[in-house]
């Protein structure tokens, strides 16, 4: 487990996605260090990657027999894994987005679109996503105020360690423009095609 949704997604979920695709989703995931908050956060996605329930290695008391097993080590931030599977990943990126969209839409509340009156201009949604600490945006308040003045509908999500991924995905996927700190490399999977993605480099 690493701090930050993006790193957890990059270093954990994506390698599991690649493995499950190679196995045609005929996989059983066994978690060595089981945490309820992690399952609550990513359970909807994991349920789309394997056809069997997730096993808690430390708490499981039953005996399971498998014809074969595969143990693999992921590289944090996914650099070496994605480099060695670049062609596969690029070919499957659209499918990965579809899987993510399907998983995070489960149990989602019904969205009722507001009727836009004739002559009314629909505001584009701008999401500003910066972490606290060393990569915080010092003039975030000014940016939000200016964006609102020029016509954007601004949203500033504050995802925490236990934030439900479905809520984060819906917030980012509904945006027209997203401004993030440099290094948020996996957030492009959360965006709709043709959205504008801006990274601020310190």
Automatic annotation (TrEMBL):
GO terms for molecular function: glycosyltransferase activity. InterPro entries: Glycosyltransferase_61. This is DUF563 domain-containing protein. It comes from the Eukaryota.
């Amino acid at each position: 487990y690493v701090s930050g949704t993006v790193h957890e997604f990059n270093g954990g979920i994506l390698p599991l996605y690649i493995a499950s695709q190679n196995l045609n989703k005929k996989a059983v995931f066994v978690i060595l260090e089981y945490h309820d908050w992690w399952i609550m956060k990513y359970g909807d996605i994991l349920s789309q990657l394997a056809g069997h329930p997730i096993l808690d290695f430390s708490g499981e008391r039953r005996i399971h027999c498998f014809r074969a097993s595969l143990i693999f080590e992921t590289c944090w931030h996914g650099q070496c894994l994605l480099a060695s599977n670049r062609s596969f990943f690029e070919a499957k990126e659209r499918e990965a987005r579809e899987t993510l969209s399907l998983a995070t839409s489960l149990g989602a509340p019904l969205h009722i679109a507001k009727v836009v009156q004739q002559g009314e201009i629909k505001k584009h949604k701008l999401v500003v996503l910066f972490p606290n600490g060393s990569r915080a945006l010092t003039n975030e308040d000014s940016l939000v105020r200016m964006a609102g003045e020029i016509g954007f509908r601004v949203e500033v999500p504050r995802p925490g360690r236990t934030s439900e991924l479905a809520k984060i995905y819906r917030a980012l996927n509904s945006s027209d423009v997203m401004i993030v700190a440099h290094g948020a490399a996996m957030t492009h999977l959360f965006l709709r095609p043709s959205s504008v993605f801006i990274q601020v480099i310190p």
